[in-house]
Each structure stands twice: as C-alpha cells, then as structure tokens.
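Study this one:
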Amino acid sequence: MQRPIDLALADDFEIVVLGLARLLEPFHERVRVVEYVVRDQPLAHHVDVVLFDVFAHEDLGLVDLGRLVDDPNIDHVAIFTWQLDGDTLERGFAAGASGFLAKNLTAPELVDALERIAAGERVVAGHAAGDYSSTDRDWPLRPEGLSERESEVLVLIAEGHTNAEIAQTLHFSPNSVKTHIRSAYRKLDVERRSQAVKRVLDLGIGRGVVDPAHWRSVTRPSESTGLAR
C-alpha cells in the first residue's frame, strides 16, 4: 500500500486551517495532515505538499508564495484559490507553484489533486468561480452567514484597507467590491464602515497563530508529527 502524502496547511486564519483539517480528516489514509503554517513561520518537518489557502492574501497569495517555495522542508506548493485565470496561473507557476486548486473542488477531488501534485505533476483542478458557500470548509464570518468572498472583503476593511486597495488585493472590480460590501452589511445588520469594523473586531477575527488545542481536536494525534507555531 502506498504511504499517505504528508501535507501542511498554510493560511493566516485559524478557522481556515482548522476547516481544511476537518475536510481532509476522513481521507487520512491518503493524505496525512501533519503541520500548519501561519504567517511567515517555517515548517519544522518535511512535507510532500503545502496547501496554501490564500484567503484575504495580497495579490492572491503570490507575494507570499516565494517563502514557501524556498523552504527546504517543502517539496511542492499547491495554491487553494478562487482565481484560475491565465495570468495568475502563469505568474504562479513561474514563481514555483506546483498546482492551483479551485475552492469549489469536492473533498475527494481535492485529495486526488494533492496526490497528483505530490507525484510531481503540475496540476490545475476545478474551475474559477466568483463565490461559493461550501458546506465543508470554514472561514471567518461564516457563522454570521457571510460567503467566503464577502468575508474576505470585511476582513480587509477591518484591517483598514480602502475599497480600491481591496479590489487590487483580491483582483475584483470596484463594483464587485461594493456589491460584496452591501451584501455583507445587510447580513451583519450594519450600515456604516465603522459599524462593520467594530463588529469584526468584537468577533475577535484576525490573523494570528493556531491554538494547538484546537488543532489536536480536529487532527489524529497518532498521525501528526509536529506543529509549526
């Protein structure tokens, strides 16, 4: 029997990392989630693939890709994203990414793509989508009823970004940003930017480290070899 691939999960938000761990846990015989990476911390152990969820990352995560590609403990980097346009793929592969995996992939499709990347294939899997409310993953503000794209916009607003900066960061049109803001405000029952920022801050949403206790609650202790904190 072929050994499971060793996988690390990378993102800035605990809820995103833990959601991916839960999504992949039923497939532990094929994909062993052994580590997480938050912000710019190096991995403590060697892994076959890092699955890099680019939620609310500048320029679709491409500005942060280099440090993962250069990490000697990482064989391959797979970008988990909404964006699969030709320019993004070209830039990402040129920077060293091994694959682009769409966020609308089912769990079995995601596992299959990760195995192919670990075997050395260059993979583009899934299809681009403007937004998608998965029932299997988690993201900031999902409990409040916001879609993943609406949540990205609200997180960036709370971090002080202007609409123009958000459009550039997420590769949105200015009108798309405004549409997501209006929808998010309606769902949060707020009317002004200051109210939205206060709501996000009151909910304790921000970039940071993963709580090891939370991690252990959704991973199999016998399968996990270490944590990068």
